[in-house]
Amino acid sequence: MRKIFPLFVVLLFIPFTQAQFTEFHPELEWYTIKGENCVVHYHKEAERTAKVTAKICDEIWEPITRLYGYEPETVHFVIKDIDDYSNGATYFFDNKIEIWTSALDFDLRGTHNWLRNVISHEFTHLVQIQAALKTGRRVPAVYLQWLNYEDKRRPDILYGFPNVIVSYPLATLNMPAWFAEGTAQYMREEFNYDYWDAHRDMILRSYVTGGNMLTWNQMGVFEKTSLGNESVYNSGFALTRYISQKYGEDKLREITNRLGVWSNFTIDAAIEDVLGITGRQLYNEWKSYLENYYKTALEPVRSNAVTGTQLNMEGFGNFYPVFADSGRKVLYISNSGNDYMSLTSLYEYDLEKKQTKRITGPVRSTFGLFDSENKILYAKITDDNENWYNVHDLFVYDRKTEEETRLTFNLRANQPSLSHKKDKVVFVFQKDGTTNLATVNIDGTGFTQLTFFANGEQVYNPSFSPDDSRIIFDYSDFDNRDVAVYSFKTGKHDFLLEARNDERNAFFLNDTTVVFSADYNGIFNIHKFIINKGQIIQLTNVEGGAFMPAIDRNGDIAYSGYTSTGYKIFHLSADSLRSIAKNDNYKGVKEFPLNEFKPIGDLTDDQIQNFRNFKDNILPEYESSRYSGAFSKLTFFPVLRLDNYNTGNTPFQRLKPGVYFTSSDMLNRYSIFGGATINTRFERDLFMMFEYKNKIPLLYDIGIKPEIALELFNVSRKADVDIIFDEDLPTVTTDVTYNLFEVGLKASHRIFTRDQNLEFRYAFSRYTASLGSFILPLEGDPQLYPTTNDEYLIGNNFMLKYTYSSLFPYVDSDINPVGTQIDLTYNLELNKYNPDGNYTIDNGILVPLYSNFNFSRLELLAKHNWRLTGSHGLELTIRGGTIIGAEVPDFFDFYLGGLVGMRSYPFYSLSGNEIAMVKTAYRFPLFKNIDFSDGHLYLDKIFLEVFAEAGNAWNSYATTINDIKKGAGAELRFSLNSFYLFPTAIFLNAAYGFDSFERNVRDEKVMYGKEWNFYAGVLFGFDI
User: Fold this and answer.
1) DSSP state of 7
2) Exposed e or buried b for every residue in 186-207, given b needs 16+ CB within 10 A?
3) pLDDT value of position 15
4) Which of 724-749 are b and which e, b meaning 16 or more Cβ less than 10 Å from the residue's Cβ?
5) Cα 886 from Cα 876, distance rounded (Å)
6) Residue 730: is the preceding peptide bond cis (ω within 30°)?
7) Distance between CA 870 and CA 339 in Å, rounded?
8) What CA–CA distances, in Å, run from 192 to 183, 336, 601, 763?
9) 3-class DSSP state of 830
10) Other C-beta atoms lying within 10 Å of the C-beta of residue 916
């Protein structure tokens, strides 16, 4: 009997559906308020942020929609104060925007009002991208798919297993990353919520002067390091401002509109339609201007540079230097060896030996030394709490014992600093988008809140005064930062440095002197402030930027300095300091880059002033109600599939048109996802999935919060058969339709850690073979033989699956992953199976004679990837499976070969009740940073994999070493991006089986081995 695998019906689409962040926390109580143009959903801990969001959305709605000549339907905002995470996400097909309340504190960005910035940014995304769609938002892409299959060979199977799998989207959106992010940061020039500040200029300036600007192609896509991805934002903002200032703000709308026409699939074509020059010509024009501009602006700085010596070369995120060992060593935070700024550790640099040593990690915050510098206090993100929230807490690392101790639990405590007496810790903590100062004792007890801000104010980098009576800290309310001092005596704070510029990273050098970083002349430099004289003295004069100063007892300075390759640690000796005159400073323009403004002119001066002089501490009254559910509109993805499983089908019959569809609740509590494809022979692939992530009574009360899914599959295939009667009657041709119906219910739950999951699944399956009607060729009296159905399997499967997945993030993880993945699966199967089509007659009705096949199976799939030098990697895969108990028919076999197993042998060649396999692969880059584009395609890297594998499948008899099947092969992997949006993974695989063997199936001998097997695919990732 035939077995049908529904796996690829869903696999062709799932990578895209998983791209969204869909985690839902059922323990939170959700509410809804409504503005004029938006609906805001929030949990009760984020009420203030929700009200401010509604107010801002209504205020910015008209100017943004007028700029792009497009007005969306009502927008749904989802406000989260769950994690210590700052971001916004726009789901432009769903008309939904998610906002995390924590204000952005990122070393590659300046400080701006978080909610004004992020809401305007994300709303601009939604409006502009919808305006650029070639169709409405309900049809994001059309999928072209192709499935090709191995030669079936075995007479007991209907068709071979896929060896070519292609799923490629033709997107209705083709907007490059730089333009999408550039316009979102631009918003409206009149808003001034995100402007060209000193951080923006620092990054671009350093790239230009260092000769390593992003290329035109690189600006179009992300998938880079933290610094590279931020540079896409940065370069996009700069180029967008250049277009607006030179060609007019209206050109942003016109380019957006031209991206929406069917004849344009690149930004180059849209730019040429509007500006009359190609995109590359625009880029070269802009680049040439920048090179001349920065050369002139930096001449005074270069004539009297005061920078010191760079201590380290590794990493682009090196922060918070602290002198130790009487000034002989510098401790600092670094992402050395990593591609993302979040992956940092604590390092020590020996100034005398010029050697670097890693101490511990991960650590991303400020830190302090105590107990004769043997213990280190810091904060770090942890999800070790009841609801898996990612929040900061305080920890201590003991250098002697190399052990870490957690001091606080769920305080959201960050940026700690020790008192000089080493008995108190001051830190910042956050709630509902506002941060405040607090202290605890050195052992983590005695929490005391010091400030009580409640309207989105932000505090940063606190530190004690020399006598521990005051705390100096950075403060921000609207834009930039000021320096304030909190007094324990009065319980109040006063501003010490309060200018229109950005002043930050302040600490008391002594009772009368404060050292800090500020951008007084457009570049961040280290300064000192003589309090009793009111005098500010500039200490450094750098081209990039100087931050986070530390000074030892000799007056030597260590600081984090920005260069064209990121933040590095610099050391500046006291005897290198010299006077810096005002005319030695940077000479940048006020309105970068051209000091011009060509608005569309639809806003009055009063409106502009209202946008800039906002008062978000005064809020309208909003009526709040319990969240009752709101679904996105159904989104459709038309699909055209060439399904080549039946070589007897005509080319037209092999085409399967269809559609995928999806919709979800705004909170991702519920979602529906389905699809249907069918050909002219009515062979169909149908599936539907409904997910439920909300509370389940009784289970929730005992702390169990599973995610539930109901799954339905219906797959049918047809085959032509010849019915032979006897020598006197002619052969009759008809068809057999094989039909699989399956319904499954699964529940998954995270266990132990975020990396581990336990899934339970029950599936009911029914396999039916329907013999088509035909005419019995009886002489003189032909008769119609009706359609008959043979229900040959009724299956019940209870599955328990443990999954562990811990993959290390780095830029090549998509094509060459690093880490460990384990799947351990137990199945209890209760099957009624009629393998030979035997029937009995009961009351005149044919009743199938089923045999019961009840058994358990256990399977392990484990994979570990080691990162070798650079982007080279070594992979080890182990797979084993056993059916426990007596031997069962081959219908229930494991299959070991093919695309998802040992590729050196076809899928159905290796099957049995027992399997074992080991595979080792070495993967390395052939070409990286290719930076090649052609039309809507962008190619960046090509990797080669060589592999060897060995394994076997068998039944009750014991396998021997001589039975083991061996093979080897190679795979080319191409990492591309399509339409600036979709990751595109192409693989070409060739494998050779070293061993030949024969299988006897239904009295037919089938030969395998000593042959090449070829595979190929075009998907969203290299997951197969």
Assistant:
1) H
2) bbbbbbbbbbbbbbbbbbbbbb
3) 45
4) eeeeeeeeeeeebbbbbebebebbbe
5) 31
6) no
7) 11
8) 13, 35, 16, 56
9) strand
10) 19
| Contacts (Cβ under 8 Å, ≥6 apart) of 334 | 312, 314, 315, 317, 318, 319, 344, 345, 347, 569
Rounded to a whole number of angstroms, the CA Rg of the chain reads 33
- Label the pairing between strands 162-171 and 141-149: antiparallel
Closest CA to 549 of 567, 535, 533, 570: 570
Helices (H), 584-694: 605-612
Show the beta-strand stretches assigned E in 361-408: 367-370, 375-382, 391-398, 403-406
Mean pLDDT estimate for the chain: 94
Residue 859 identity (one-letter amino acid): E
Fill in the DSSP letter of residue 633: P
The alpha carbon dihedral of 446, 451, 456, 460 has a sign of negative
Position 27 pLDDT exceeds 50 = yes
Q: Do the strands 707-723 and 525-530 form a parallel or antiparallel pair, or are they unpaired?
A: unpaired
Mean pLDDT of 235-244: 98
Burial of 87: CB neighbours in 10 Å, binned 0-12, 13-18, 19+: middle
Output the six-digit token pair for 636: 């459709």
Residue whose pair of structure tokens reads 């205020």 in the numeric block: 59
DSSP labels, 188-254: -TTT-SS---HHHHHHHHHHHHHT-PPPTTGGG---S-HHHHHHHHHHHHHHHHHHHHHH-THHHHH
Give the torsion sign (CA, 388, 389, 390, 391): negative
The pLDDT > 90 percentage for the chain reads 87
Sheet strand arrangement including 503-510: 503-510, 513-518, 525-530, 535-538
Domains of the chain: 30-136+172-294+596-624 (1.10.390), 301-577 (2.120.10.30)
Q: What is the pLDDT of residues 367-391, one digit of tens each?
A: 999 999 999 999 999 999 999 999 9
In which residue are the tokens 């199977």 written?
157
Q: Quick one: 267 exposed, middle or buried, by C-beta within 10 A (0-12, 13-18, 19+)?
A: buried
Both tokens of 983, joined, read: 């990751």
Q: Hey, what's the torsion of the CAs at 631, 636, 642, 648, to 10 degrees?
A: 70
DSSP state of 256: H
**Confidence grade of residue 5 (pLDDT, cut at 50, 70, 90):** low
Residues in the chain: 1024
Torsion of the alpha carbons at 1001, 1005, 1008 and 1011, rounded to the nearest 10:
-150
Which residue type does 137 have? R
Rounded to 10 degrees, what is the CA torsion of 329, 334, 337, 341?
180
Dmax (CA) of the chain: 122
